Amino acid sequence: RDPDVCFSLGYTPYVVGGALTFAITPSAVQNNVEDKIANAVTNALKSKGAMETGEVLEMMSTVLNPFAALGVTSMGFEFTAGVGVLDLIGGKLVLPDISIHACSEELLVCFGNGCDEKMMVESWNDGSLCGLGTTCDKCENEATYWYSKAMTACGNEPKWNDGAICARGTTCNACKNTATYWYSKAFTACGSEPKWNDGTRCLAGTSCNACRNGYEWWDSKFGHHCGREPCWGRGTVCGAGTTCNNCCGSAHCPWYQVGVCTCN
């Protein structure tokens, strides 16, 4: 059948008001029904100036009577809020709001004949951003706050894996394992930082705390590194009484090389 057309007749006195809404089927429209509607609206608006609430309701009833011949498929009432500057006359909203528009209707539950033709609400998957009290109602699973999105989203946020950077007291709450300070990231992150292997450069008293096997000064790299420095092999140039102490064996130091030696 033809798609329904929605009709809305509203009245908003002093910011807050209401509106009658219903859907009609164009193919069910009887002859001259447009004239009936126009006449009903015209007669209803012939009242003197501003209308009281009772007069507005009476006018709505008058306007709706001709629509009985349209095969109304659904009808309802909704609250509205708004101010129209051009409608403000003498401190009152004089004219009602009338609109005709395409219908959009999604059902949460439907039983019986005709449900196959209805548009059902498609549940939103976990992770879909939504607003509490509004679009979150479409979630397949109850919405919660997602730290990774800094907003509410459908379902529960998956716990963050170790190594994910986070802030204590906020995003670290999403960690799978308790967050700690990671020297390699210079920030807090989920879980415990893996220990650093031997040979990794570090700073004494700070990042060297992450070393697996302690740390010391490595002459070959001129800096503190995790673990013990491997001994220097044969032929490695060294300094007598200093770096030659790293030789795996003894050092050869001819007098004419003035303290420059090589590891044996």
Please name the defining characteristics of this protein.
3-stranded antiparallel beta sheet, rod-shaped, mainly beta, 264 residues
Topology:
Blueprint: E1 5-11, E2 16-24, H1 33-44, H2 53-64, E3 74-81, E4 88-89, E5 92-93, E6 97-102, E7 144-146, E8 151-153, E9 180-182, E10 187-189, E11 215-218, E12 223-226, E13 237-239, E14 251-252, E15 260-263
Antiparallel strand pairs: 1-2, 1-6, 2-3, 4-5, 7-8, 9-10, 11-12, 13-15, 14-15
Helix pairs in contact: 1-2
Secondary-structure element string: EEHHEEEEEEEEEEEEE
Number of helices: 2
Separation of the first and last Cα atoms: 98 Å
Main sheet summary: 4 strands, antiparallel
Structural class: mainly beta
- Which outline best applies? rod-shaped
Number of strands: 15
> What is the assembly state of the chains in this entry?
single chain
pLDDT average, as an integer?
77
Q: Stretches where pLDDT falls below 50 for ≥5 residues?
A: 86-91
Walk across the major sheet and give the strand order: 3-2-1-6
Strand content: 15-25%
CA radius of gyration: 40 Å
Helical residues, percent: under 10%
Gist?
With 264 residues, the protein is mainly beta. The protein contains two helices and 15 strands.
Describe this structure in words.
It is a single chain. This protein has 264 residues and is mostly beta strands. Helix content is 9%, strand content 24%. A four-stranded antiparallel β-sheet has the order 3-2-1-6, with no helix packed on it. Strands 13-15-14 form a three-stranded antiparallel β-sheet, with no helix packed on it. A hairpin with a 7-residue loop joins strand 14 and strand 15. It is rod-shaped and about 125 Å long. It starts with a strand and ends with a strand. About 2% of the residues have low confidence.
